[in-house]
Structure formats: C-alpha cells, structure tokens
Amino acid sequence: MKNVTDSCVFLVHWPSAGSFGFNTDILATNLINLSVVFGVLIFFGKGVLSDLLDNRKQRILNTIRNSEELRGKAIEQLEKARARLKKVEMEADQFRINGYSEIEREKMNLINSTYKTLEQLENYKNETINFEQQKAINEVRQQVFQQALQGALGTLNSCLNNELHLRTINANIGMFGAMNEITD
Q: Which regions form coiled coils (predicted)?
C-alpha cells in the first residue's frame, strides 16, 4: 500500500500536466522511447521476424539435406571409382605379369632359335670343310697319279720297244679306267 501512495505522491510533484513540452533529460526519454519502439517492433514485427527466421531455417535445413544427398552420391561415386581403380590395377598387374612371361618366352624362343641357327651354320661349315678337304685330297691324288704315270711312261719309253710299249700302255689305260670307276 505504501508503494501506491508513494506513486500518487510522486504524480503530485510532477510539473503541470496541462502543458506539453520536450523533456530534455536524455536518459529518461531514451529509455522510454526505446522501450516503446521495442514494444511496437516486438508486437508488430514478431510475425515478420518469425517468418524470416522460419524461412531462413527452412533454407538452412534444405541446404543441409541437399549437402547430405550430394555427400552420399559423392561417397557412392568414390566407392565406384575405388572399385574401378582396384579392377584396373588388377588388370594392369595381370598384363604386366603376362607381358613379363611373354617377354621371357620370346627371349627363350629367340635364344633357342639362335642356338639352332648356330648349330646349322657349324654343320654347314664342317660339311664345307670336309668337302673342300676331300676335293683337295682328290686333286692331289690325281696329280700324284699323273706324275707317277708320266714317270712310269717315261721309264717304259726309254726301256721298251714298240710292241712291249703298246701292251704296257693298254694295261695302264685299263688300270687307269678301273681306278676312275672306283673313285667316282
């Protein structure tokens, strides 16, 4: 009760209520003005502010939802890419292994082919050498035989008469013919 009476007493001490003027007390007027402005803003702007905040909240939620969906899609694509990468790496390893084994196989084939070619060349060389040796031996035999024959004929010509000489020539020609048949 005392508060009510104090309030009334306070009103009595107010300057004349009939006059209207400016209150120059900045602190008192600003607080009143601010409280009135805030009151009006809260009363009228409450709906607008609430709508703005709700719209902002919905946009943020939609953005989060879209981000989550994009994140999920990105994770799926990443997993697919990892699976493809693993598959490609396995195929590359397989190609590498096959390539190395193919290279080794070709290398061994080339080495074997080279050895065979070298063996054939060695055989051809040996055959050629043997052929040339036989040819040289035959030529030497023929030359020795002809020289021996000429020497024998020279000796016979000086020692024999015509009749004996003709018989010896015929016998030697027969022997010579037989020798040619044997060597051929």
A: 64-98
